[in-house]
Amino acid sequence: MSTVVFESPLSHRDVERRPSLARLVAVELRKMVDTRAGFWVLLGILGVTIAALVTAYFAGSADDHTLRNTFVLAAAPSAILLPLVGILLVSSEWTQRTTLVTFALVPRRARVVAAKALAGGTLAGLALVIAMGLAALTTAIAQPDVNGTWSLSSQHLGQIALYVTASMLMGVGFGALLMATAPAIVLYFVMPIGMSSIGAIPWFDGIVPWLDWWSSVSILADKELDATEWARAGTTLGVWMVLPLLAGLWRITRTEIS
């Protein structure tokens, strides 16, 4: 009696090779559109962006139709709503109980978190490209014929890119820190309201401007910042983006999976 031996077409090296970070980022990008929630949020962002530009075209003045102003308007929905996709990208692993599969395929959890953060930054970059394209198209159709119609400084462009990307990474950080969708979304929307309420107390007048996301980071899209405003923006980014990402990474790498 002879024994039939089947040989795998994959070598031991292929089996043991871990997926590259670029492949993990591609997988995380696909996760953003594969789920119903992520798909509809992204579609909603595109719809709101187009609606805002159409409204500005018919209702705005000639000064509102310059590339600078239309790009700020087109990037605003992404800055506000993209963090929801970042939250879902991380928290859905735990709410949908897919962590067993994810961390079985990629045991080093820090690589997964890094891939999610990079995927979030990549999506923010794609959103900025689309926003710029829509803004340029709106400006070309409107033809405002005013001074500085097509002017947009590199500093202002960089600030808008930083604003949208940082907002997205803040969402990723909130999702990693809380590992649950509903609390993370509530925190994201309640945080600015809470900071504004604290700012109403005179004793906190000098502290809130250094911690309020909407007054220190969102102004990145409004104007070119000076040194003090950059310091405030950096402090706020450290508190609301960097710390949640680091704390979320620490929690994910040490949480028991069941």
Keywords:
258 residues; mainly alpha; 73% helix; single chain
Quick summary of this structure?
With 258 residues, this protein is mainly α.
Write the layout of secondary structure elements.
Layout: H1 12-16, H2 21-34, H3 36-59, H4 67-95, H5 99-105, H6 109-142, H7 154-178, H8 181-199, H9 213-216, H10 227-254
Plain-language structure description:
This protein has 258 residues and is mainly α. It has one domain (18-254). Helix content is 73%, strand content 0%. Helix 3 (36-59) packs parallel to helix 6 (109-142) and helix 6 packs antiparallel against helix 7. It is globular, with a radius of gyration of 22 Å. It starts with 11 loop residues before the first helix and ends with a helix. Mean pLDDT is 87; it is low at 4-8.
Strand content: under 5%
- Work out the number of β strands: 0
Terminal CA distance reads 45 Å
Major β-sheet annotation = none
Q: Detail the poorly predicted runs.
A: 4-8
**Count of folded domains:** 1
Oligomer: single chain
Number of helices: 10
**What form results from the Cα inertia axes?**
globular
Element-by-element helix/strand order: HHHHHHHHHH
Radius of gyration using CA atoms only: 22 Å
Query: What structural class results from the helix and strand content?
Result: mainly alpha
